[in-house]
């Protein structure tokens, strides 16, 4: 068992792997620390002149807050800051697994038409005043968006049951959904009044200002169930990247894995989109950044995708308030504006190609 | 101690019958069986049926007295290690990562010291230690095939199935890889099956030869018997002559007319 090139001995190989694992852990911990700092910055950005230290103290010990700080930090800004983190993480995770199961670098929850469906649902509520689930009161725009996004993935589910679970079929059906809902949306926009149109566009551009503690809790709950479950499937998902055949030979039930992960991804995306509007880009780019940094071993890739998504959206939340004092810009616009230059730099600095 | 046997395996893709009534006597443990046959003879399908990745329309596969159909897919794939035909992956995973993945067999999040040393040693044994930290997307065709074989050999199984493990390799590495497979099979007292196109390699490494053509087993036995049988010329549609090489090995010569 010789080779012309004599390799280093086993111990050196183990050492290299150990170093890389250690580096991965440090990166994840570093990203968590950055995220914590960004959340505090998010809270002190805006009128009221809070200091970083003071904001941190009030968060760690709510009892020392003055009534004014209590309102600003605990009632107004913390839910928004946490919502940015959670939604960013949800979109990052959703995008990472979408790209994994569909074996396609351009896949994110929106490729499959989920965001168009959500926008259409919201438009139904805003323009026609229809509510698909009666009795939800003021939440009916959110509820419509959620029902349509989830309905779209159910349709996708049914389709894969009829025709088998191949990535190509899933993507093509997803794109068909995307165009269908975009066309329907255009119909509604055409007949809408100026007021409704403005409202609709505002909804689509995305906003964190609708955050409440209840929504934060719902997002945390959904993420808290689905992320550990995806992590549990780490080896199987990593194996899938080596090709279906390889994964199947290792004992992965590829069809079932694709379907269940699709279910999880849909739920993450539907909840995120219905609460904050259609924010593209985060689900696409978060995982790409993570992949460039740590590769695709899911044990590092998945946590870092979540963290990248969270970092991007948290940064966006700060930028949306900081660009023009007194104005909060829609986050959908900002994500692309601040994210894309950074993303292009990363692509240019990257020498390896993992997608041909 | 008896090994792997098949009785009356049939399989069809839709209306196209791929395998009909394929049976073979128990293949002994510690021995390497080479499966030969023209393109589309059903070699890969037979491997998939044995591994349980496809379900036969009739027939059974046994290891000793155990009917493999009674095992769950996971249990079955623990006993039967199948290396699919040559592939290239474009994932951002290093060779060490994918070896670890094969070694862990989807179990357990934590990677222990023992796991790491097992992978390091397996890479050394396979002669691809220098590739450990390379991304699989950067490997050449031959290198990824060697990784593929190493991924199969790191697993401890009762049966090893290799679907054309040498198709992308140069002469030197063909011999290396087949020697590794043969040594591993003998050392672990496992049943080894390898599908090959190169009849000279088959003659060199096989303890048993099975000739598959149009979904049937046409000949089965020692390399000498099978290679000298008339079935082989008929199956491939070429004239085949066998001579003895300088080291008492069989040499296969093929002529189109």
From TrEMBL, chain A:
Topology relative to the membrane: Multi-pass membrane protein
Primary location: membrane
Record field: transmembrane: 25-44, 78-98, 110-133, 139-159, 171-192, 267-289, 301-320, 326-348
Ligase is among the record's keywords: no
Keywords: Cell membrane, Membrane, Transmembrane, Transmembrane helix, Transport
Subcellular location: Cell membrane
Protein name, per record: Iron ABC transporter permease
Organism in which the protein naturally occurs: Roseibium polysiphoniae
From TrEMBL, chain B:
Single GO MF annotation: ATP binding
Domain ABC transporter residue range list: 4-239
Keyword tags: ATP-binding, Nucleotide-binding
Keyword Hydrolase attributed: no
One Pfam assignment: ABC_tran
Protein family (similarity comment): Belongs to the ABC transporter superfamily.
Protein name (Swiss-Prot/TrEMBL): ABC transporter ATP-binding protein
Native source species: Roseibium polysiphoniae
């Amino acid at each position: 068992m010789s080779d012309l090139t004599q390799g280093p001995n086993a111990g050196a190989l183990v050492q290299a792997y150990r170093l890389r694992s250690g580096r991965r852990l440090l990166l994840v911990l570093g990203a968590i620390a950055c995220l914590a700092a960004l959340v505090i910055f998010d809270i002190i950005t805006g009128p009221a002149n809070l200091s970083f230290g003071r904001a941190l103290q009030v968060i760690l010990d709510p009892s020392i807050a003055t009534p004014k700080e209590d309102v600003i930090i605990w009632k107004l800004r913390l839910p928004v800051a946490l919502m940015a983190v959670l939604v960013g993480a949800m979109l990052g995770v959703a995008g990472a697994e979408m790209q994994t199961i569909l074996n396609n670098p351009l896949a994110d929850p929106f490729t499959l038409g989920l965001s168009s469906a959500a926008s259409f649902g919201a438009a139904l509520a805003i323009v026609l005043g229809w509510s698909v689930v009666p009795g939800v009161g003021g939440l009916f725009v959110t509820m419509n968006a959620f029902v349509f996004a989830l309905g779209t993935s159910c349709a996708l589910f049914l389709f894969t049951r009829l025709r088998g679970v191949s990535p190509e079929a899933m993507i093509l059906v997803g794109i068909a959904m995307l165009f269908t809902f975009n066309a329907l949306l255009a119909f509604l926009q055409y007949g809408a009044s100026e007021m409704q149109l403005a409202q609709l566009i505002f909804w689509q551009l995305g906003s964190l200002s609708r955050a409440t503690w209840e929504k934060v809790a719902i997002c945390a709950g959904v993420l808290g169930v689905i992320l550990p479950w995806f992590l549990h499937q780490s080896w199987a998902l990593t194996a899938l990247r080596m090709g279906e055949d390889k994964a199947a030979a290792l004992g992965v039930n590829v069809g079932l894995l694709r379907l269940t992960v699709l279910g999880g991804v849909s739920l993450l995306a539907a909840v995120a989109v219905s609460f904050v509007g259609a924010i593209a880009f985060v689900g696409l780019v978060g995982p790409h950044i993570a992949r460039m940094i740590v590769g695709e071993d899911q044990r590092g890739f998945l946590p870092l995708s979540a963290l990248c998504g969270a970092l991007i959206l948290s940064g966006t939340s700060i930028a949306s308030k900081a660009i023009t004092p007194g104005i909060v810009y829609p986050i959908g616009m900002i994500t692309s504006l601040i994210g894309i230059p950074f993303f292009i730099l990363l692509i240019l600095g990257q020498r390896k190609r993992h997608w041909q | 101690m008896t090994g792997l046997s098949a009785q009356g395996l049939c399989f069809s893709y839709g209306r196209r019958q791929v395998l009909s009534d394929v049976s073979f006597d128990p293949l002994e443990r510690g021995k390497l069986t080479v499966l030969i046959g023209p393109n589309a003879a059903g070699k890969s399908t037979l491997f998939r049926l044995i591994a349980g990745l496809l379900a036969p329309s009739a027939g059974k596969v046994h290891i000793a007295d155990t009917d493999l159909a009674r095992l769950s897919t996971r249990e079955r794939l623990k006993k039967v290690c199948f290396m699919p035909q040559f592939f290239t992956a474009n994932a951002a995973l290093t060779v060490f990562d994918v070896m670890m993945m094969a070694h862990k067999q989807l179990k357990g999040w934590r990677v222990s010291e023992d796991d790491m040393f097992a992978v390091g040693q397996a890479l050394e044994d396979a002669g691809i230690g220098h590739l450990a930290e390379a991304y699989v997307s950067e490997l050449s065709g031959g290198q990824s095939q060697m990784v593929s074989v190493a991924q199969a050999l790191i697993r401890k199984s009762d049966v090893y199935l290799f679907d054309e493990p040498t198709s992308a390799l140069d002469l030197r590495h063909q011999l290396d890889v087949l020697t590794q497979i043969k040594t591993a099979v003998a050392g672990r007292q496992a049943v080894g099956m390898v599908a090959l196109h190169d009849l000279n390699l088959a003659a060199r490494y096989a303890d048993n030869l099975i000739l598959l053509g149009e979904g049937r087993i046409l000949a089965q036995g020692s390399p000498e018997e099978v290679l000298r049988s008339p079935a082989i010329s008929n199956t491939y549609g070429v004239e085949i002559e066998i001579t003895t090489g300088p080291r008492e090995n069989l040499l296969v010569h093929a002529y189109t007319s």
